[in-house]
Amino acid sequence: MSLVIPVAHDPTCPWCWIGLSQVRRLRQEFGVEFDWLGYELFPEDLEWQDYAPAEPLPPNKPPTPSRFELALAAEGIKLPAAKRPYRMRIHHALQSIEYMKDQQAPVQAWVEAVYEAYWMRGEAVGEIEVLRRLAEQGGFPHDGMEEALESRQFSNRIVKFDDDAYAAGVYNVPTFFIGQRRYAEQPFVVLRRAVAGVLGVRPLATSTGI
To answer: 33-58: b or e for each residue (b if 16 or more CB lie within 10 Å)?
Structure first.
């Protein structure tokens, strides 16, 4: 039986788009599986945050990459250019993953379908009708999905930010639970070493030697 790694996530988080890429690579290299745990960044009882605009750079100062831009570069991926819904609640999408678990459907494939719909095509995956269409098009079970989501059948499995998530030790998404440690917003090389350590194997050699 392969190692199953829980990962706390929210499909609307850009760091989780990086996390999805990392999951794919870890599955390919080590044959491990992942249990996707819904941690809702902006539940209905949490008000949207307003962010102050960034201070303009001095005209003679060259720009420097942000931590997120460095993470994208390290992973070798780009953030898709699709225009995505602004301030969308994601509760139903997180519920749909729990629904697929109960249906013994291919959960990894469903998670990828939800992420790709949102990040690559800008679809409103927080809406039940969009999720139903994705399930129909992808051949996933969906006969009882709409009723289950509307009745919030799986809400008790979803952890809300901030207080509940913090109490569970999750302050950022994605957070990977590997062995007895948590790894939040970490580069792939760190996750790779952690998985190899738990499995007691040597990771594959890379061109950088790490």
So the answer is: ebebbbbbbbbeeeeeeeeeeeeeee
Number of other CB atoms surrounding residue 90 within 10 Å: 23
pLDDT tens readout for residues 119-134: 999 999 999 999 999 9
pTM (2 d.p.): 0.93
Task: Measure Cα distances from 108 to 34, 140, 143, 168 in Å.
Answer: 8, 12, 20, 23
Task: Record the tokens describing residue 125, joined without a space.
Answer: 């995956």
Query: Which residues are CB-contacts of 27 (< 8 A; sequence separation ≥ 6)?
Result: 33, 34, 108
The token duo for 83 is 């225009």
Would the pLDDT of 203 be above 80?
no
How far apart, in whole angstroms, are the C-alpha atoms of residue 197 and residue 146?
41
> What pLDDT is stored for residue 205 in this prediction?
59
The DSSP symbol for 178 reads E
Which tokens go with 91? 């509760």
Decide if pLDDT at 207 tops 50.
Answer: no
